[in-house]
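subagent[fold] <- orchestrator: predict structure for attached chain, return tokens only, no commentary.
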Amino acid sequence: MGMAGTSIDEVAGERRQLINVAYRLLGSLAEAEDAVQEAYARWYALPRSRQEEIVSPGAWLTTVTGRVCLDLLGSARARRERYVGAWLPEPLPGPPHESLHESLHESLHGRAGRDRGHGADPADQVVMDESVTMAFLVVLESMTPAERVAFVLHDVFRYPFAEIAGVLGRTPAACKQLAASARRRVTAARAPVTAARQAGVVRHVKQAWETKDIAALVELLDPAAVMTADGGGIAGTALRPIEGAARIAQYMVAIAGKAPGLELLERPVNGVPGLVARSAGVVIAVASFDVADGRVARIWAVRNPEKLRPWARDG
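subagent[fold] -> orchestrator:
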């Protein structure tokens, strides 16, 4: 089917799909928006005759978005070397809106969510599933740009390697190898616990944190737990990961002591139970957790206000 049967609204309706792809590729909603905007700018810059030659505008837009993201990922490492402290993916609010199969299954030809979310808050358009949990996004950060693109497009969005080859400028066989390499990294990561079990652990952490109970916090943390904070040089926080249950518990209590009136709220973070810290009604931190064997193994705390903009409504 050619462009002749595709309206402007239908092309614009691909935005939700593209935001979902770009956020998983970049780990930043702001950068994802920029990448999608660039893809649309290139589309509308095409002559009408060229648009009409394109069989699937959705696939074309996804390919261009993937290439833009690949370029951004290539330059991101240099940018993050200059970043103050640890860099973490941008956390998003909200529970799982729907299943991956309901909204992303038909990704190749852009049929997913065509007239839902157009013009809405980009954070509301990201489908919350296992591929956007903080733990998963952190694993994606360990991949090379090419591995990440190949893995996300194939394993998450089910794009065939022949299409991915057009994004990466490599052969389908090479793209298959890249995805396999990335898949091994994901397989090596710990399997997530159920949301209900994680919610229980997070609730206990909240209670111990509020009462400044160091002993209770230590009991809830894995002895080898690691806490990583992202302040971006804007909000004060530890510049290096804090290791060990006792040190983390002491740090958490010290933070609570320096912020009178700090309010902790149980909120889904990227679709998984987490905590949001508010002060004077303003969200100042969002914490994600990785739970294993009933204890917290990893904490990712984002304090950089530029990464907390999607949480303004919670304030």
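orchestrator: received. Logging for downstream: DSSP finds 14 helices and six strands in the chain. The CA atoms of residues 81 and 260 lie 34 Å apart.
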